[in-house]
Specification:
about 325 residues; alpha/beta; Rossmann fold; N-(1-d-carboxylethyl)-l-norvaline Dehydrogenase, domain 2; six-stranded parallel sheet; three-stranded mixed sheet; binds nicotinamide-adenine-dinucleotide; 3-hydroxyisobutyrate dehydrogenase
Length: about 325
Amino acid sequence: MSLAAHTLNHASRSRAKSISFIGLGRMGSEMAYNLFSNRMADTSHFRFVVCDAVPETASRFSDNFRKHFRGANIAVAANPEEATLASETIVTMLPSSPHVRQVYHDSGGIIPTLRSLPSADASNTLCIDSTTLDVQVGRDVAAEAEAAGAGMVDAPVSGGVTGAKAGTLSFLVGGSKASFGRASPILSLMGQRIIHCGPAGSGLAAKICNNLVLGVQQVVVAEAMLLGQRLGLDPSTLARVINNSTGACWASSVNNPVPGALAAKSAPCERDFEGGFATALMIKDLGLAMDVSKASGSPLPLTSAAERVYVEAVRRDGELAKKDFSSVYRYLERGM
Ligand code: NAD
């Protein structure tokens, strides 16, 4: 069902009790499901609107949601314009900077649509972008959305698909105190920790800094686990030593890349590195860090080295792009 005719006639009245979610991929579909179902538990009078570049993805989500929640008021928007006309709250979860520019900035996007609305409707609108993207692009988009009258926060997430599904994500939020205050109750329907990091772009800055630590640590844990075994150590003994010593980190204690090293057997390496956080996404995030480091004059020698290792791993074996980034161990094991 397209929303255009209905929303164009009833914009102001129906927008207040409507939430649009754009980008229903691996993360977005889980987040939207939690957001909508938790909102349904609050009140059944909300309308939900979904939108994706692949229309079948949005229809599938809508059909599935209706199966779980009979009577749910959920509709598919054909494009960001319809999603903006329909709802005062708009959440976006897109791959990266070009997609965010397209959805917000291009003609038929959120910002041109906001400019076409009566000013009261525009100023009641809140945009929440959870995409991990370039800090400067995030800041520019937020400034444009605010100039059009809306509130906006960048709210990238930590916690992966598992956290998105369980509703335990951490949101790292950038934006004014007022926009943060408006966004918090919505974010809390999808996550457990909502951290205000500062003005627009600060959530993205925090996310990129966290992920460069993670990206470097995962390579170095893979190096240590491989070296230790070649020196005759049992991987579970070595993991126990590191995890109880000064080398302890998530990359070793939760995401250890050697099968059998952790008693829990829940790391991606136990299932051929399927699931988890794709190497391609880690390469994207390290690239974002490298870009801002040049612009801000902050050297990142280890991040740069780690990025090269992941890029080369994927160049040698394209399969690793989709596998968890701890599969960098497999690349080192094969002798680079
Ligand atoms: P994904 O590729 O699975 O999903 C992106 C969705 O956006 C797709 O459904 C795609 O069709 C849709 N899309 C693309 N362009 C669009 C457009 N112009 N209009 C409407 N929809 C459009 O990606 P994902 O894994 O869900 O990741 C989303 C974001 O979350 C990325 O920025 C990623 O870095 C970040 N992230 C991902 C993870 C993870 O584990 N997957 C963890 C933390 C953060």
